[in-house]
Write a structure and sequence with these properties.
This protein is α/β, with parallel strands linked by helices. The chain contains 12 helices and 7 strands. The structure holds adenosine-5'-diphosphate (ADP) and magnesium ion. It comes from Hydrogenimonas thermophila.
Length: 261
């Protein structure tokens, strides 16, 4: 059975793409078959894996509007068990096109129907979503078994969270009853920063049962780590760039926690 996990938070710059790419890669290194779907028009997950605009002709946009099958556009990556559905800036403006041709109920399930065609080939499908609660994110949440919510350990971290949780609740009630919150993931944590500690304390107070734990029963926190920020410019997940970095280790712990759950 494949598990479909969407990484979502309507705020930009909180670590969604970093989490999607590095969780996907860490699961692949653990010999799981993984499909990473880049559903953000900014295509940062696609470029993080070393693909540039001219390297691929078709992207998720062509799949969503029905011009291509998802299996036609999947790219191989340097990790043998990690594959990618690329995105492209062409996704912008897509909402209108794919919403126009669909009934109200059908339009939230377009991505799910496309994923259904290939999901048996994979152990995990990880979806990176855009920084908005628009149609693409709704589709990504409607297609998923669960959602991981990265929370940046900075000022305003919890702002907008109520709105996201409401959206998740609504989708669960109407379109996707099986949707679960897999967990909240504190990102860019810095032990020297009091604000970071405060955000983490708030998270443990409100969502303790929804934080990930490592094998030794510690909460999993993604540290602020320069290797995580650098690796995309080399077109590599951090595990192939600096496997021993604190950032790489944290995402490996996250993958292990998910494999153990
Ligand atoms: N743990 C981290 N340590 C250092 N830099 C990070 C970390 N997580 C993300 N970044 C950097 O912060 C920026 C935003 O992260 P990103 O994953 O693209 O967020 P989002 O997808 O939510 O917009 C990127 O430049 C990324 O490289
Ligand atoms: Mg992103």
């Amino acid at each position: 059975m494949s598990e479909i996990i969407t990484i979502a938070n309507q705020k930009g710059g909180v670590g969604k793409t970093t989490t999607a790419v590095n969780l996907a890669a860490s699961l692949a290194v653990a010999e799981k078959k993984v499909l990473l779907i880049d559903a953000d028009p900014q295509a940062n997950a696609t470029t993080s894996l070393g693909f540039h605009r001219n390297d691929y002709e078709y992207n998720i946009y062509h799949v969503l509007i029905g011009v291509k099958k998802i299996s036609d556009i999947i790219l191989k990556t340097t990790l043998p068990t990690l594959q990618l559905v690329p995105s492209n800036i062409g996704l912008v403006g897509l909402e209108k096109e794919f919403y126009d041709n669909e009934t109200r109920k059908g339009r939230e399930l377009i991505l799910k129907r496309k994923i259904d065609e290939v999901k048996k080939e994979y152990d995990f499908i990880i979806i990176d979503s855009p920084p908005a609660l628009g149609p693409i994110t709704i589709n990504a949440l409607s297609a998923a078994n669960s959602v991981i919510i990265p929370i940046q350990c900075e000022f305003f971290a919890l702002e907008g969270l109520a709105q996201l949780l409401n959206t998740i609740r609504l989708i669960k009630k109407t379109i996707n009853p099986k949707l679960k919150i897999k967990g909240f993931l504190p990102t860019m944590y810095s032990g020297q920063n009091n604000l970071s500690k405060q955000v983490f304390a708030d998270l443990t107070q409100h969502f303790k049962s929804k934080l990930f734990k490592s094998g030794d029963d510690e909460f999993i926190v993604i540290p602020r780590n320069v290797k995580l920020a650098e690796s995309p410019s080399f077109g590599k997940p951090v595990i192939l760039y600096d496997v021993k970095s604190t950032g790489s280790k944290a995402y490996q712990h996250l993958a292990q926690a998910i494999l153990a759950s």
